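Hi U.,

Before I forget, here's the chain from the pilot set. I'm dumping it here mostly so it's searchable later in email.
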Amino acid sequence: MKYLSLLFLCFYVSYSTAQKVTIVSDATAPRIQFGAEKLSAILSKKGYSVTFSQELPKRTNSKVIVIGQKGTANWKQNTKSSIDDTKLTKKEGFQIRTQKNILYIEGADATGTLYGAMELADRIQLSGKIPSDISIQDSPEMVLRGSCIGMQKPYYLEGRDVYEYPYTPETFPWFYDKKLWTKYLDMMVDNRMNSLYLWNGHPFASLVKLKEYPFALEVSEEDFKKNEAIYKFLTEEANKRGIWVIQMFYNIIVSKPFAEHYNIKTQDRSRPITPEISDYTRKSIAAFIEKYPNVGLLVCLGEAINTVDDDVEWFTKTIIPGVQDGLKTLGRTDEPPIILRAHDTDAPLVMSKALPLYKNLYTMHKYNGESLTTYTPGGPWGEIHKKLSALNSVHISNVHILANLEPFRYGSPDFIQKTVQAMHNVHGANALHLYPQASYWDWPYAADKTDKRLLEMDRDWIWYKAWSRYAWDSKRDRGQEIQYWDTQLAGKFGTDLEAGNNILKAYEEAGEIAPKTLRRFGITEGNRQTLLLGMFESQLVNPAKWRVYPGFHESCGPLGELLLEYAKKEWNHEPHVGETPPQIISEITQHGKLAVEAIDKAEAKVTQDKEEFLRLKNDMHCYKAFADFFSEKVKAAMLVLRYSYSNEISDLDQALPHLEKSIGYYQELVNLTKDSYLYANSMQTAQRRIPMGGDDGNNKTWAELLPHYERELVNFKRNLALLKSSKDGTIEKKEGKPWQTAEVTLLDGNTASYAVKNGTKVYGTPISEILKVAPELQNLKGITLDETMQNENGTHLKFKNTKVVKLVVGYFNSDQKRFLLPPSLETDAAGNAFGQAEVILASAMNLKELPRVNIHTYTFQPGENKLDLGKGRVLILGFIDGAQTITPRDVGFIDAGEKAAIDWLFY
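Structure:
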């Protein structure tokens, strides 16, 4: 009892002598009050006794902290002394000054005031006390610093297409979790992020009702009320933290009930703009603006609109008028920002047509496409950034889907800082839009295989902290930054600074591997390729067959040589330029080695969060195994390409051990991931094509891919043995057999046809005469089409079939506008809805004076069907039985001076 009395007395004395602090702030200003409460929480944690007031105390010996916004009545009332704030002019800027026992936090605006309060709170958290004398001023470099959340799933919902995910508790249970939202918004404000983007195909039918289209609502009345409530909560809580909520949507997509009512598709890239669709969308936007006037709009014109002309018309005659209608109903004369995404459109052209109608337009463009590859961007994609930033509006650099970083942890502050500097200095961007580092399609969870799913925001804390830190100030001193991150990492894992530095080294060494690998060897930066699952030799030695995304290599890395260029120069003894394949594979293996050495060295000193450290350590070992695997594949590919010039079997003999070693490293990768990861890529649909298709959620783990790489090795050994046993060092290639045709009934009057054989003039003109045609196509009957009509109106075909058929379509290998571009999953997320994304026969037809032709196939189920393709010339070569097995291959009808493909060695 005597002990308890003494303990109570000590507690009473400690409490009664706690230093008192009065926080003076405007309780009617949500952001300022939120900052004051954050500051109070830290002060209380450090032992201070805090009271709040809206007025400066007349007499007090205790510490006083005055928090306010420049120029407001509350600020003027509570600042007796003269405080120089003439330099406090930048948006979201703040200054902190002390005068005797009063500490003043002044913001240029409400958000700046909030940030000033949080800056002081951070300093007290570190030092444990209120600074006795402080004089600082700060403001962010980037106007917008935001993150995004996908209202998406890894798979398609039944009966729906890509991006079509209504807001319901069944699909997005986390969306209604207020604690989760509070945690995420707190993470954002802690990192001084001021914008939150919600991505969805057509959100309006989940959030607003239209009296003209009552049938368009695609959620129940109960769910609609839940959506109203959570959206209100989200926007209010975000506003407290200085965060602007922005709703993104794709065009043209309509709700499923609307589509069923009018017997149309929810999205159709080849569909013209119709009055009903335009009116519905315009009224949806107007209703949204009326209901949520403080929520921004991010407009993606691409993906589901046919032409740039349609983009312009849709933006200027549907979207902008919809916003203006909503503002008029509210009686507002201001123009809230509309963000135009440059993806899959001519954004400079659209802006030139839209600015006379609406001035407050922002622009957004992907930084490196859908991967992180370089901090030295350039090329044609870089020119788009420059044109948009030259408009003197807010131009946003979008760190988009990180297709080359999934799923391993990524947190290289050095790479990220240099990237943000490039955004400013090369592209002219002054805002950041940041995707999750991994698992975008599976948010809020990470891909780690744990008893309780890890939250992506917790796992990838360093991703958000680094990007936000440099979006605020990209010019920070590198030496001081190393010290900062050493301290952060030491604090997280309970180590000394030396071990913290080793963890930082591991992050930064590993942080170079995926960017360097993809920019030098990849097919695309987009979702179509999951880099860390690897690549096949056929993709390395014959990338054209997989359709290299135009502009990718020129835009997403420094000057250098691709594998085919390097092999040709080596054979011709020509000088090399820039980054070369041997250089890169040497560098990535060294990065992997150093990352593992550093992380292993730090392990002994880890005293807290040990399970997460072990997961981080495992990721570093995964990166090393990947780098070793990929380097061996490239070594084999270089020798195979040399063989294509030398015809010396010894080159292939030397390639074999490298291919065998690659399997060993890939087995190591399988072992490291089989118990630690659920998947590599979070989008588990047919949009994933490289290294293999992700149809029906398959081929998303390393264990699934290993047998395919082993089969590739077996095929190579077999073909090598056949070459050695042949008399003349060649293998007679098997000619393809004619495909089995199928009968269909054409329903739209297109009855004229032609035989797909040598001598046929497909357009009735001499230049369109077939000179060579693959054997597989020789029984087909092509459908005669008018090239002018194709260029002006697109290609449209209606037919009826009684069994599954494949429609054979020939795409000209040209980027000229008069030819229809083949399906591109980079710009058309629905570009594999009929299994048409892959080239089935490469270089399969030669016409007299037209580009050579690649063959794609579209699969149609029994019933009445139609094909709608965009504007430009394309060949409709006929129908084949959909049940037959067809083997993809490179037919090899190439132009004079071109090198024949060598990928047959791996089939």
